[in-house]
Sequence to fold (103 residues):
Amino acid sequence: MNNNFLIPANSKKSQLILGFFTLTDIILFGSGVGVTLLLLILVQSADLPIMLLILSPALVTAFLVLPIPYYHNVLQFIINLYTYFSGRRRYIWKGWCLNGEDE
Fold:
């Protein structure tokens, strides 16, 4: 084989549930669907605004675990955005050309 190894591009997807979801994603989406089912059982109303409010936990969690390109899902994108904007933004150059001496 001449020590040549071929690693498939989708090798990370084999570690995910159904190729898309982590255990955290399944728990998050399951809790949203569970709350929605509980609200559907408890609230007896046929009004459209109330039904949209009842369905909102499942819709929001489905939106958060929706896969998007270059990120795992929307939740990971939001977390990365938050850490970028809330993190340190002042970068101090300590490159190879700086000898540590003040001029």
